[in-house]
Amino acid sequence: MLIIGIAGGSGSGKTTVVKRIQEEFKERIVVIPQDSYYKDCGHLTAEEKVVYNFDHPDAIDFELLTSQLEQIKRGEAIEQPVYSYITCARSKTETVHVEPADIIIVEGILIFTSPQLMSQLDIKVFVDADDDDRLSRILLRDTEERGKDVKAVLTRYNDLVKPMHLQFIAPTKRYADVIIPLGGNNEVAVKILLATIEKALADKWPQ
Using alpha carbons only, what angle is made at residue 21 by residues 202 and 80, rounded to the nearest 5 degrees? Predict the structure, then answer.
């Protein structure tokens, strides 16, 4: 089993990179999104949710994430949490059944901030992108997919997303084995990553 961590700022293009890896290795891959492991904030008021800091490492249930990753590494299936960006709550009745696979991708903005999680990763990838490009993607995503208005997105970006990126996310780039500059559409860098994964798989399971 090969465990790959893909980090990078919000809107950097991590999802695009993950999709490219899925296209290449198909059914051999399982993706574990960090976002499924946000701590349950459903009990907060609407006003409290607006100012809650989702870009701080404390917002992530790393204990559950690392525990479930260990289960998968042992060949056991897990019940992955389901988190709603609309209610900021974790479902009490629904989970996603995840079976082990040859390649496990753990993807999220804060995954390199957890030493325990970092120690479980075989390949660490950081997807880098210009701040302007990231902001434009965040605006599109949060307004179209998460029901936020533009003013609220910009306020959150300036008050929380940008400073947390500078404090917690950007510094973790130094831990990466592979850096993909200019976001997920960097074809050359993505091909290098795919070749790296192919070689790592060959080293684990020689023909």
Answer: 100
Instruction: Name every residue whose Cβ is closer than 8 Å to that of residue 64 and which is 6 or more positions away in sequence.
Output: 37, 81
* Length of the chain counted residue by residue: 207
Calculated CA dihedral for residues 7, 9, 12, 15, nearest 10 degrees: 40
Q: What is the pLDDT of residues 17-59, one digit of tens each?
A: 999 999 999 889 999 999 999 999 888 888 888 788 999 999 9
Query: pLDDT tens across 150-200, in order?
Result: 888 898 889 999 999 999 999 999 999 999 998 888 999 999 999 999 998
pTM of the model: 0.90
Token pair for residue 24?
Answer: 């290449």
Q: Where are the alpha helices (DSSP H) in 52-149?
A: 62-73, 115-118, 131-144
Specify the long-range contacts of residues 154-157, CB closer than 8 Å, at least 24 apart. Answer: 156/50
In 36-173, the DSSP E strands lie at: 78-84, 89-98, 103-107, 123-127
CA 2 and chain centroid, separation: 17
For residues 118 and 57, is the Cβ–Cβ distance under 8 A? no
User: Maximum distance among all alpha carbons in the chain?
Assistant: 58
